[in-house]
Amino acid sequence: MYNLVVFGAPGSGKGTQSARLIDEYGLYHISTGELLRDHIARDTDLGRIANEYISKGQLIPDQLMIDILEHTIENNPDTANGVIFDGFPRTIEQAHALDKMLAKRGAKVDAVVGLEVADEELIDRLIKRGLESHRSDDNPETIQNRLKVYNSQTAPLRDFYTQAGKYHAIEGSGAVEDIFHSIRESLRPTRS
Ligand code: ATP
Ligand code: MG
Known about the structure:
Number of helices: 9
CATH superfamily: P-loop containing nucleotide triphosphate hydrolases
Number of domains: 1
Number of strands: 5
Bound molecules: adenosine-5'-triphosphate, magnesium ion
Helix content: 55-70%
CATH class: Alpha Beta
Shape: globular
């Protein structure tokens, strides 16, 4: 089992690079953002709760998010070969929960890819995406709040995973293909 966390600020390209990585490594992709947006689109109970937070640029409460993730892993036998976690963990509490979940299965987080992009570029990308995405959170006000939330609640994970010797800093601006190549090179030694 090889478990990879794709980490970075909103708009850093987690989804784009995850798509390339699944093809390359044959891993199962869990995007918590896509999962929640799917619930919102289907107007489920969870979707209604999630939308309250997402439209304000806030995080879904930890315990709810952790339960959803555990449920997803349990109900997908395809996760047994390993998973790309895209958008999770986003808090230290979620990171501890992920360690526990994987430990139960005799596994661990093998590597964390951190896509690093300057704030001005993130804002540019998200505003552009908002023109087509129709996402309730891709508008200038909510974008500002998402970056604030990222800096206060999620960014500390960079130190957390650096101390664990798992963090791979990747320059996240430039051509999609070049970024993908640097991820691949950086991960090579972690895949035995
Ligand atoms: P990117 O553009 O790099 O894919 P993103 O930040 O635009 O990243 P998603 O990962 O799709 O978007 O997440 C969208 C929203 O869903 C978040 O702003 C948050 O409200 C909610 N969400 C997603 N994952 C989590 C999580 N692990 N914990 C709490 N809330 C989450
Ligand atoms: Mg995404």
